[in-house]
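Subject: sequence -> structure tokens, single chain

Hey, anyone have a minute? Need the predicted structure for the following. Not urgent.
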Amino acid sequence: MKSNRANVALAIVVAATVGISLPVIFGEPRKVDDQHGGDAWRNAIYDFQTLITGVAAVAAAYFAINQSRVVEANSERRHQQLMELSLRPARLMIDRTVFPMVEYIEDALEDIKGWHQRVAVESGAWFVAQNLPDLKKMADSWNEIVFDEQLGIAEAYFDGEMVHALRLSREVAKTLLRNVLNLEMQMSPLTGYVGEEEEITDVLREPVKQIELRLATLEEFLSKFDDGLRKLERDYLKSV
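Reply:
Had a minute. Here:
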């Protein structure tokens, strides 16, 4: 579209130039003594030469401004291309950290929240006693996620909140797994008790309370870290 407009404008300027130049060069001049005769088109050009000069100046200014805009647009495009090239290494690093880890973390957060809700109720100790193998498996999985090396690829782009949240998430996940393993050892002597909910609950109440606190803390800080990953995705990857 811009090319068509430029071509039309150029054609108008060429036509105007030819229309002005040819009568001046080849047209018959009027006789000066009585101011009549001669080529009418040539006389008109001479009579309105100031106006013609002004129009030509305006046309020249228009083309100069238009050319300046073209140069500026090309410069801006080159600048954007250079910016994209300079950001490419950062975007690749962030992409490798965010995906697929952010999905793993969000799935883990759903599980952590569900376990915390079950453990926090009055019958939480009994629930843990009945589902300890599953809790052990989940705690091991959460520990693997937060310590996954892929999370460190873009660590240089983590802000202070993200670094802090990841560090505490790792500490809590490690402690939670240790609590669950200790609870497993405490449960070993009680495996012979079938249906004795009250006795088992009394023994496990305090250790399960510690697990409940660890689950709440892990959910809090892992959520903050997840928010940071999503922000990195919006800032660096959504504009690609």
